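Task: encode each sequence below as structure tokens.

Item 1
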Amino acid sequence: MSTAPNRPNILDALCPSRDVFVDLADKWVLLMLVSLREGGAQRYSELRRSLGGISRKMLSQTLRMMERDGLVLRSVDPKSTPPPVLYSLTELGGELAEETRPLCAWTEKRTAVVQEARATYDRRQGTDQEA
């Protein structure tokens, strides 16, 4: 199947949309979108707790990337001491966060089926390796 010239195609390794897609498909990006969508603006420590298992380094890198991509807004209240830093979704980030709802719902609904498929595969692989 060919696409029209200059039309974005994430399957084309040279297309800029591929680079954006790869960044957005990161597990921490997706989980952060969900956390900010459900919990609203959060401080760094709140966001880290809500994500469970993310390192400080990965959280910082992911937040910077999402801010660079226009998905997250970092705001500082200079009136307070120390000034609190809050992270929230931009309009673009909110739009993307809404698009994750069906994926989240499907995952929660079908987790048991996927786990069973994994167990079946693992049993089959264990049998193949013994032969």
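Item 2
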Amino acid sequence: MHISAKADYAMRALLELAREPSRPLTCEAIASSQEIPFRFLKSVVGELRRAGLVRSQRGCEGGYWLGRAAEEITLLDVTRAVDGELITLRGEPLAGLDYPGPATGLPDVWREVEAGAAAVLGGVTLTSLLAGGATGVTGATGATGTAGAARTEALARRGAA
């Protein structure tokens, strides 16, 4: 799975806005705080505005605010707002994917990967990230406690081999 720079920047910008929801922030302030290229951030914020995730006000007292409450904005919302489909295969959605012969089951695996990623991203809100980092992520995947640690360790060993 590929997480685009656009999705990463969008999430970081929204977290900046969620951190101080009582006052607007300019793109310049967000870009500086998060070390994001200003011009790229400006286009990303435009997409977030069109998706209703941020709202803006012009003028000397203007800037950007969250378009919804931080507890209502998930990472899945953000990813879909800036990237569209969560996972594609050669640029096409997985919904109509069908293979013949021995590869018949493969599209179901790809759709399961997409559903798992959507479950994780849909279970993490801006508020949960501000409150304690990514602690809610392991709970969303079911990989908690010793079993989750063992699975992570096994995957790490496999990757090192």
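Check on item 2: The beta strands are 54-57, 63-66, 88-89, 92-93. DSSP finds eight helices and four strands in the chain.
End of task.
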